[in-house]
Amino acid sequence: MRLWYQLLSSETGMKNFIAATQKLVDRVVSPGTTVEVRGTTQGVLGDQYRLFYNYDTREVIDNALKVRQGGGYDAFVLANSLDPALVELREMLDIPVVSFMEVNCFTACTMGERFGFIVANRKISARYREIIHGYGLRDRFAGCEALFFDDVRKQEDAFTDPAVADAVVEETKRAARRAIDRGAEVLVLPGPPGALLAQMGIFEVEGVPVLDTYTLLAKVSETMAVMHKLTGVCVSRRTLYEAPPAELVRKVGAAYKVDLLRDG
Fold it and tell me: Gene3D superfamilies from the entry (predicted)?
């Protein structure tokens, strides 16, 4: 089994985070399953702003279309917490498209009544609220607490510098305590802090579970791929994820000069 595991982080600017994520997922999947952790060219450089985020989303779509055209993968895993192109990919791919946010939010609901997020900065909190409310989980969401990193790449050094790692962990714990005070019974940590705490074996703050987000996502994705092989289905083709007809795909590919769509 082969899984495409898509982060938005730059493969050059955040290679330590990507390598740490690869180690986390490798320890959990079954023998015979390969998880290929991928990044983007310039990703998460100010993704709290929708304009910049859209450039990364287009790269994710292109990667997914390459997977669609070339085959060879059993699931496409959106390992970024902003659900980049989630609906678009489910419209186009006939393999499971698994979302970091869906997996972690709904798992958190099995472990406590209300969950909270520890996020990179204040600006991005609005986007998390929008996604979670869209899932229908408004009443289960205790809110976001920010780490005040306007540039997520500043966290990259935590994987190579113990002093930076300690600083990130302490700030994360402070934010976690604020979230707990607001009623969070489970904590979700996207981005480098989530991978760092998992790497260090920190899965609880003051009795509140801290999800091992990237490991959990890999294991659920593997399970979804198994179920797809077993049942032959992985997505509803009614309404939201209805796939465009092949002829329309070809017309759009020609009109917009997208080679990956020209064959329908």
Answer: 3.40.50.12500
